[in-house]
Predict the structure of Leucine-rich repeat-containing N-terminal plant-type domain-containing protein.
Amino acid sequence: MGFPPISSLSFILFLFHFHSTISSSHFCAPHQSLSLLQFKESFSINSSASWNCHHPKTESWKEGTDCCLWDGVTCDLKTGHVTGLDLACSMLYGTLHSNSTLFSLHHLQKLHLSDNDFNFSHISSRFGQFSNLTLLNLNFSVFAGQVPSEITHLSKLVSLDLSDNDDLSLEPICFNKIVRNLTNLRELDLECVNMSLVAPNSLMNLSSSLSSLSLQYCGLQGKFPGNIFLLPNLESLDLSYNEGLTGSFPSSNLSNVLSDLSLSNTRISVYLENNLISNLKSLEYMFLRNCNIIRSDLTLLGNLTNLTYLDLSNNNFSSQIPSSFGNLVNLSYLDLSNNQLVGPIHSQLNTLSNLRNLYLSNNLFNGTIPSFLFALPSLQSLDLHNNNFIGNISEIQHDSLRFLDLSNNHLLGPIPSSIFKQENLTTLILASNSKLTGEISSSICKLRFLRVLDLSNNSLSGSIPLCLGSNMLLVLHLGMNNLQGTIPLTFSKDNSLEYLNLNGNELEGKIPPSIINCTILEVIDLGNNKIEDTFPSFLERLSELQILVLKSNKLQGFVKGPTAYNSFSKLRIFDISHNNFSGPLPTGYFNSLEAMMASDQNMIYMNATNYSSYAYSIEMTWKGVEIEFTKIRNTIRVLDLSNNNFTGEIPKVMGKLKGLQQLNLSHNSLTGHIQSSLGNLTNLESLDLSSNLLTGRIPTQLGGLTFLAILNLSHNQLEGPIPSGEQFNTFDASSFEGNLGLCGSQVLKKCYGDEAPSLSPSSFDEGDDSTLFGEGFGWKAVIVGYGCGFVFGVAMGYVVFRTKKPAWFLRMVEDKWNLQSKKTKKNVGRYVARRN
Ligand SMILES: *[C@@H]1O[C@H](CO)[C@@H](O)[C@H](O)[C@H]1NC(C)=O
Ligand SMILES: *[C@@H]1O[C@H](CO)[C@@H](O)[C@H](O)[C@H]1NC(C)=O
Ligand SMILES: *[C@@H]1O[C@H](CO)[C@@H](O)[C@H](O)[C@H]1NC(C)=O
Ligand SMILES: *[C@@H]1O[C@H](CO)[C@@H](O)[C@H](O)[C@H]1NC(C)=O
Ligand SMILES: *[C@@H]1O[C@H](CO)[C@@H](O)[C@H](O)[C@H]1NC(C)=O
Ligand SMILES: *[C@@H]1O[C@H](CO)[C@@H](O)[C@H](O)[C@H]1NC(C)=O
Ligand SMILES: *[C@@H]1O[C@H](CO)[C@@H](O)[C@H](O)[C@H]1NC(C)=O
Ligand SMILES: *[C@@H]1O[C@H](CO)[C@@H](O)[C@H](O)[C@H]1NC(C)=O
Ligand SMILES: *[C@@H]1O[C@H](CO)[C@@H](O)[C@H](O)[C@H]1NC(C)=O
Ligand SMILES: *[C@@H]1O[C@H](CO)[C@@H](O)[C@H](O)[C@H]1NC(C)=O
Ligand SMILES: *[C@@H]1O[C@H](CO)[C@@H](O)[C@H](O)[C@H]1NC(C)=O
Ligand SMILES: *[C@@H]1O[C@H](CO)[C@@H](O)[C@H](O)[C@H]1NC(C)=O
């Protein structure tokens, strides 16, 4: 039976309603239905297979119905051939094999499979058999392996998108054939496809019909052919994140329809001069982040009045913002961060009423923050962190803000109440302004979408608003303020908090037991308060906890535990120093501190898991020196039980904690011998057992601790020879003073001879610190005999100290991530987190 000649919409609707009764009038040939159904069956529907959208189209495909009416299927109405298949975001999960029935749909002209999970399938050479294909989109679908050369048979292709897969590569021969044979191409997107072997010169032969070329993150290297830019129809060119690309961008003869240009993170020279500017008048998107910009006259950019996105971040611009920027009235996104721009911001940006994202962080701007910035009607993201802004924060005139970071300036006064009217605010960071005063208004409870709240390092007073335990916060940092009262937070079930820092306030009362409702909590820092409680052993049930700092409070009693299997198994920093704990050392816990028994291979900074651009920071003591670590490497492992009244012996099991870099048991009442098993702690850089009641000899095994930079065994009752060994010979008398009968060259006392002459404690003044740590470390430190340990720590890169210009590198919000980041499925966790 032939196909009905009618192709009107009403007839299709008619069919749709009555197809079951007139099953013989299918448009769709049975073999096509079968192929499609088998294709459907070869995958599972899996909600984590699609990220950006979710349309499980194949679910509507039913045997016995007309496949031309199925979701995502298009047929030629005359022939009934399936000519289009659009299964983007269809949640398909599984391998796309070469024997797939997909390849029997010979007549396909458009095939769209983006945003599924084909589980590292290779792209089958059979794709080359779709001889009439004009569109092939395999974007973001977890394909891997080499792009088959048969792709080049698809000479009718107008649009080819293989971007954002996890592990695809393109051989030079194949790419050259694509360039030569696909003469109808208008769009070519190979973002994230590994093309590191392809010579940039081969791009010269690209079809002159090309209107869009995206080669982000392709690993291209070498000199880029200037001619590429002369493609007459080119509207969009993205070469960003090919760090090895050199050459220069032509200033003339450019396509006059170019509207989107991205050269970020390449070494292609860009001459910002009249010629170039007059050729770029139609530009709407310009991304020149971290570029090789030469003769940089920012004023000229004011002529590109059609610009909506402008990214000039991470360059060396050092002027003021030119007044010509006031002409860029279409701008919705302006990123000038990480330059050396100076001066107060006058009215240059006053006219930019479409601005949604403004990033000016890490510059040298000064003066007050102009109030017109807070009156921009569409502003959603404002980042001014790390500048020299002074004065009060003005009231915000509208309520569109989602992201606000004013940290590391010199702002003062109260937090304006209008901030709490920004109903969509997700991130509020006002940290490190020192002089923000007043109370944290309970209006903050109205911010239902707040994920990150960081008001640390200010002079805020009053109590902590109750609601902060019950909203959606991932990060709560109120440390280093003058907050008073109890910790009133009642953490509700399914709390998403990952980071809780209340260090350095005047908080009293007990540690709220409801913290255990925060099941994904990774950091608790309640140090330097006036908390009166016993050891909160219920915290051991927080299986993700990595950092627990309770030091300098009024905690007392025995540290008993564990009560559960795997207690504190992920803990890498455990600091309960400077409290009144007593009784034996918590030997039971030492047995379950698994993270301290291992060491990480990959050094990464510890960031919030679900907001990965937020780097964790904590306060730590390094023998009398209080430091805020603004970034923490995951390799750091610290156990500090000092300045309590622990009694009894050091248990042998401590030798299991092989990952430890710092162990501090000083200023307790420990007795017995130093366990030779401590010689197994081969990663130790700092060992402090001073001011205890330890007796006996120093185990020779300690001589094998080759990383040890700091050793303090002073003020015990040790005797006998100090072990020899390269490392031990570097310690001076201060490491051993105040013991009964130690002998050795370090204490200038021959063994079997008389007692060593007593030495006065060594001390370093602040001048010494600055030479030890170099310029820029503005913190005040009084170090007693521990100087080189810091240097060692810095050199090993475990931590980054708070500097005069503190490194508070909160990196950015959704738009930025969308536009600039490598988007593959492996990376997508972060991607999604930032979109929230
Ligand atoms: C769903 O997909 C994810 C990856 O996207 C995979 O890890 C998981 O095993 C899949 N689940 C099922 C039931 O196939
Ligand atoms: C297709 O090939 C794969 C692997 O080669 C095999 O596991 C599968 O059974 C085949 N499917 C069909 C329908 O032949
Ligand atoms: C490809 O298109 C041509 C011209 O439209 C047509 O004649 C031919 O049958 C098509 N081939 C297939 C396999 O659909
Ligand atoms: C180029 O395309 C034609 C079809 O137009 C095809 O026959 C030929 O094999 C292709 N050449 C290469 C090198 O792929
Ligand atoms: C830029 O604009 C200024 C003033 O509007 C004009 O004098 C100048 O010629 C323009 N330059 C270019 C390259 O268009
Ligand atoms: C700027 O945009 C407007 C509106 O889209 C358009 O009419 C005009 O041609 C553009 N200017 C240039 C120089 O491309
Ligand atoms: C801003 O800094 C410049 C030096 O870069 C200085 O000359 C100027 O006085 C400062 N202005 C204000 C308002 O602090
Ligand atoms: C808050 O976000 C919602 C959803 O995106 C939007 O509809 C609403 O207009 C936003 N509110 C404001 C004040 O911008
Ligand atoms: C955990 O949260 C629930 C409900 O939000 C609450 O009833 C419970 O008391 C909390 N747990 C603790 C230990 O406070
Ligand atoms: C430490 O504990 C011991 C034994 O419980 C006790 O005798 C001693 O007084 C305590 N020392 C301090 C400073 O509290
Ligand atoms: C210390 O290491 C040695 C040799 O590897 C081993 O025999 C011993 O059991 C270890 N001691 C502890 C407490 O881990
Ligand atoms: C962690 O945060 C730091 C600083 O904010 C940032 O530079 C880094 O890229 C982040 N790391 C990850 C894995 O996102």
The two ends are 54 Å apart (CA to CA). The longest strand covers residues 626-632. Residues 546-763 form a domain with the Leucine-rich repeat, LRR (right-handed beta-alpha superhelix) fold (CATH 3.80.10.10).
